Amino acid sequence: MAIIEARGLARTFRSRKRTVEAVRGVDLTVGDGEIVGFLGPNGAGKTTTLRMLTTLLKPTAGTATVAGADLLRDPLEVRKKIGYVPQAIGETMGGTDPNCLVIEELLDQAGLYRLPRDEARLRAELLIRQLDLGGLEQRLVKTLSGGQRRRLEIALGLLHRPPLVFMDEPTTGLDPQSRSNLWEHIGRLRSDLGTTVFLTTHYLEEADVLCDRVFVIDHGVIVADGTPDELKRRISGDLVTLRVTGEESGAAAARELLDRQPIVREVTQADATLRLTVEHGEAALPALLRVLDAAGITLESINLSRPTLDDVFLTLTGRSLRDDSASAHAPAGDSATEPETATAGKE
Amino acid sequence: MSFIRDTLLVFRRQERLALRQPAWVIIGLMQPILYLALFGPLLTRLPAATLGTTGNAYRFFVPGLLIQLGLFGSTFVGFAIISDWRAGVIERFRVTPVSRLAIMAGRVLRDVVTLVVQAAVLVLVGVAFGLRAPVAAVFIGFGFIVLVAIGLASVSYATGLLVKSEDTFAPLINTLVVPLLLLSGIFLPMTLGPGWLQGIARISPFRYIIDAMREAYLGQYFNTIMVEGIAVAVGLALVFLWLGSRVFVRENA
Question: For residue A56, which residues of chain B lie inside 8 Å, CB to CB?
Answer without folding.
Answer: 91, 94-95, 252-253
